[in-house]
Amino acid sequence: MKNFLTTAAVLVLMVSCTKKETSSANNRTDSIKIVDSINAARTKINDSITSKNRFKDFSGTHKFTHNLIKNPGSVNFLKINGEADHYHISGNITSGKNNLKIKGFMAVVSDKYMNFTGEITQHIPENDGGKPYTRKGTKTFMSKDGGKTFRLQDMVNGSGFVDYIDIHF
């Protein structure tokens, strides 16, 4: 009886250790191809969604004003390809000895708000003895008139006075 059990155990081990069919490797390769094609389709769909604006397109040149500078200037919005509601912006206002320059990146985050990251430098001789004042970093522009005008919310300048810096659309 011991020989019979030993023989049976050896046979079971031999059967369980024999090489299986190679079709599982082919199935694995096919499933990898299917997953890759699904991922490619998803990527294409996601890229098309992220490149479309969710809000109004602000591309182009717009009126740019400052309450202490007599004449208006202009600011140019250049859409960043492949990114929704993101723009490179640059512009200036000059009137006599007064001037204001803006340069950076603008992200439209809602119908009422835009986030600007960059530099806004103003030189107005009647403020702070004529020293230039620079705002750096991320600043918010907000609209209270339905998107016709966006005003910088960091209004207090280096002299402690209020500046109204507006972009008109």
Terminal-residue CA separation: 97 Å
| Helical stretch tally | 2
Strand order of the largest sheet: 1-2-3-4-5-6-7-8
Strands, count: 8
Shape: elongated
Helix percent reads: 25-40%
Please state the structural category: alpha+beta
Beta-strand proportion: 35-45%
**Major sheet:** 8 strands, antiparallel, barrel
- Give the low-pLDDT segments: none
Spell out the helices and strands N to C. Answer: HHEEEEEEEE
- The whole-number mean of residue pLDDT values reads 85
What Rg do the Cα atoms give?
32 Å
Helix-strand layout with pairing:
Elements: H1 2-16, H2 23-50, E1 60-66, E2 73-79, E3 86-95, E4 98-108, E5 113-123, E6 133-142, E7 149-152, E8 165-168
In short:
With 169 residues, the protein is of the alpha+beta class. It has two helices and eight strands; from the N terminus they run H-H-E-E-E-E-E-E-E-E. It has an eight-stranded antiparallel β-barrel.
What does this protein structure show overall?
Helix content is 25%, strand content 38%. The chain is of the alpha+beta class. A hairpin with a 6-residue loop joins β2 and β3 (86-95).
Features:
169 residues, alpha+beta
